[in-house]
Amino acid sequence: MASSSQHKHQLFLSLLLVLHPLSAAAQTGPNVTRGSSLSPQGNKPALWAQSPAGDFAFGFVPLQPNQFLLAIWFAKITTNLTVVWSANRDQPVQTGSSASLTRNGRLSLLDHNGQEVWSPGVGDVAYATMLDAGNLALMASDGMGYAWQSFEHPTDTILPTQVMNKGGLLSSRRSPSADDYSVGRFQLRLLPDGNLCLNTIALPTEHAYEAYWLTKGTLGTGSYLVFNQSSGIQEVQENSSLVNVTYANIGSPGHYYQRATLDPDGVFRHYTYPKPATGNGSYPDSWTVASFIPENICSAVIVEKGGSGACGFNSYCQFANNQKACLCPERYSYVDPGNSSKGCMPDFAEPRCDAYDSADFELTAMPNTNWTNAAYEWLSPMQEDECRQSCLEDCRCMVAISKDGDCLKKAMPLSGGRVDPGYGGKSLFKIPRVDSTPPPPGLSRGRKSPPVIVSAMLGCSAFVNILLISAIALLFLSSHRKRSPRAQIDSRTVGGHLQAFSYHTLEAATGKYGEILGKGAFGTVYKGVLTLGEAEALVAVKKLDKLARDGEKEFRAEMNAIGRTHHKNLVQLLGFCDEGPHRLLVYEFMSNGSLASYLFGENKPSWDQRMQIAFGVARGLSYLHEECSSQTIHCDIKPENILLDDCFTARISDFGLAKLLMREQTMTQTDIRGTKGYVAPEWFKKRAITAKVDVYSFGVMLLEIVCCRKNIELEFGSDAGPILTEWAYDCYSEKRLDALVEHDEEARSNWRMLERLVAVALWCIQEEPSMRPSMKKVTQMLEGAVEVSVPPDPTSFISSMY
Fold first, then answer.
1. Which H or E run contains 746?
2. 341-345, 441-445, 762-766: which has the highest mean pLDDT?
3. Is 215 exposed, middle or buried (0-12, 13-18, 19+ CB in 10 A)?
4. For residue 150, which of 120, 113, 110, 182 has the smallest C-alpha distance?
5. Is residue 165 within 8 Å of residue 190, measured between CB atoms?
6. Which residues have CB under 8 Å from 73's CB, separation 6+?
7. Count of other CB atoms within 10 angstroms of residue 324
8. Are 246 and 36 in contact (CB under 8 A)?
């Protein structure tokens, strides 16, 4: 007679026969027979097979124009397409590709060039069928069951009745973008010892870091994972006892769709979605989370043995409302604005120990925040004030953790950043002082005067000392006369920020203004060479034209205000000349010229370069509008006024000079300031001018950056092209953005980002200034931190007033 435990075991196995997709009762849909094929087309799913109940479909899913996945999805959820398995998640195919079950019984996916992208690796398949459980099955031609099934090769999702055996794994998607299904860095694995774990990997390899969630204890051999429709994900042990992984009491499982997905943020979530009642085709907007693990992803992921943590390097993780947010510290920004999990980078250069001055930096406190990577120095006991000072004096220290009398100093890159309300410690984050201005090239702060060999003179007689002093003086005078005039700079500084140059010095430095770099609304720019400190440096010297009749005091006050600005996306002002009728400005030299020449030239910048330029300009304007001690409105934002440094970083030039122009000076033969095609409508209507005029100009320029064409291509003649701002709205509203980037494959392959950028630009060029976002919000919208709603017709508000 069987024991009670054996009866219990047999009862459980009987239950699994009902749940398991291999049961004889499993229903199948229309078969995919040998010789069948399917090709993707258009922007709607292409169906190849469907389960008998119609809940699941198999075929091609469009990601963006000309990108497709061979996938399984919930067929009846039309408002929220949910993919549960895909064959080519890392390699989407294009139009002209095809999936086929060949006449010799081999399933294969070929790209548009006829190259095989994916195959399950089995042959002699009788037919393929879609089961009601959501399982794609290839039936063996010998009638001996399944030759292959998708349930045994999951991607990021498992479904009710699906079983995962030892060695099985789920891999998250890389990002939450609707168009990115590629393998991410989070895994759920059932280990050989029976433990279920969540861990990160070091992409693009498969090297696994330490688990951040693990089932308690080591389970017996023979265990596996099963998705129970009534209660959630369970691990079955050898003795048939159960360990709940996720638990959700689904009272009427037949009324709900269910799935369990390892999401891009590293959280394994059990989702439910109500099936519509008979005759009712309405659906909710999104799936509901029934349960999830781990409880707090931010605190769970550890970095003792490597990796960046739950978020990317130099970012920190905050978990609220069951969602993870990866955030950047002050003065840091996302490496990839479209994917916050890739980490953050500083908007300033890391301190160099050979030219470090602690006075240039300050520490900002971040309570209950910690970066858990190993400290290179642990000081104890040490209170917070001492910890601050120690980090400031140490060029390597980028963050100091002060907690319970300990001070942990850490260097970049920082990893394992997290916010924990119960932590009790404090991160002291090093950033440049807001009012600090870096020294001109070739000069370092605190440089000591070169020694004059005074010590050698101390032991000599007074007479010899006099002779030595006279000789040294003659030597310096001789050297002074031999130097080129361009090497001499006026020693005056104004307010400790800018160098005051004589007109003669700048005339010599530019070869009597011989080489013109460009002309603009504020004057002409010449190339020059000045000796700054101990080295020669290229500079750009701007001669200002038609300035307002301000006195010397007012001019210098304005120069001081400009000189105090310091941001990686602004061209740095080094000095000026205020001598008689001459007003000149000396800027650092930008080796890659203007954005206009780069954007509209023969060799157009890549999509990624254009995105970084757009984000950089937005950050620079946000700084001018909201972070300066007094708001600065540029009034002439256009590609000609955006310069590019050695690394093609966008740098705004001519900021703050609008105040110095005479009211009648203009580039467009009107009484406005700015350049035709970029001028905000309020200039023409005698309305108050605010920072929103720069927002408008930025929106026009953003469209130019996206499309690599000018807003107004030809000013006169019948061959003039459409005005870009008007055409862009038509393309956006008619859902044909591909026309804007017709010959730009990079832009077309980044469809979601393209959509976002055009929408942001359309918000910026709203004719009503109050409808335009601030530059701070524009920056957040570009970086994905703020949702971008559908923009109205830019002229709709004005039109509605008449």
1. helix 745-749
2. 762-766
3. buried
4. 120
5. yes
6. 45, 56, 57, 61, 81, 82, 83, 84
7. 20
8. no
Report the pLDDT averaged over residues 710-718.
60
**CA pair distance 111, 109, nearest whole angstrom:** 7
Cα separation, 61 vs 47, in Å, equals 9
pLDDT digits 0-9 by tens, 682-711: 887 767 788 899 999 999 999 999 999 898
Determine the Cα–Cα distance for residues 250 and 516; give it in Å rounded to an integer.
75
Rounded distance, CA 90 to CA 79, Å? 25
Residues linked to residue 432 through DSSP beta bridges, in sequence order: 361
Say if CB 721 and CB 714 are below 8 A apart. yes
Is 60 exceeded by the pLDDT of residue 566?
yes
- The confidence band for 799, taking pLDDT boundaries of 50, 70 and 90, is very low
CB 59 within 8 A of CB 70: yes
Q: Bigger pLDDT: 658 or 562? A: 562
Count Cα neighbours of 495 within 13 Å in the Cβ-side half-sphere: 18
Top-confidence residue, 723 or 171: 171
Active site residues: 636
Q: Tell me the two tokens of residue 243.
A: 């360990």
Indicate the SS3 state at residue 754.
helix
Collapsing DSSP to helix, strand or coil, 479 comes out as: helix
Give the three-class secondary structure for 297.
helix
| Per-residue confidence band for 798, with pLDDT thresholds at 50, 70 and 90 | very low
Cβ-contact 226, 243 below 8 angstroms: no
- What span, in angstroms and rounded, lies between the C-alpha atoms of 135 and 154? 10
What is the distance between the alpha carbons of residues 293 and 481, in angstroms, rounded to a whole number?
Answer: 76
d(CA 713, CA 676): 12
SS3 per-residue string spanning 151-185: HHCCCCEECCCCEECCCCEEEEECCCCCCCCCEEE
Residue type, 797: F
**Cα separation of the two ends of the chain:** 92
For residue 543, say whether it is annotated as part of any ligand binding site.
yes
Closest residue by Cα to residue 562 from 553, 550, 573: 573
pTM of the predicted structure, to 2 decimals: 0.55
Q: Which residues of 758-771 are buried (b: 16+ CB within 10 A; e: fewer)?
A: bbbbbbbbbbbbeb
* Strands of the sheet with 169-173, listed across from one edge: 169-173, 183-190, 196-200, 213-214
How many residues belong to the chain?
802
Burial annotation 741-754 (CB, 10 A radius, 16+ → b, else e): beebeebbbbbbbb
Residue type for position 402 = S
Residues 47-88: tens digit of each pLDDT = 999 999 999 999 999 997 789 999 999 999 877 889 999 999
Q: What mean pLDDT value characterizes the chain?
A: 80
Q: Whole-angstrom Cα distance, residue 2 to residue 658? A: 94
Q: What are the structural domains of the chain?
A: 14-153 (2.90.10.10), 165-294 (2.90.10), 316-424 (no CATH), 434-441+484-589 (3.30.200.20), 594-802 (1.10.510.10)
Residue 623 gets which letter from DSSP? Answer: I
- pLDDT tens sequence across 16-48: 433 333 333 344 457 899 999 999 988 889 999
Which SS3 state, helix, strand or coil, does residue 714 take? coil
CA geometry: angle 192, 193, 199, nearest 5 deg: 75
Per-residue pLDDT at 413 exceeds 70: yes
How far apart CA 84 and CA 628 sit, in angstroms, is 49
Write down the residue that tokens 């090239």 correspond to: 441
* Coil, strand or helix at 547: strand
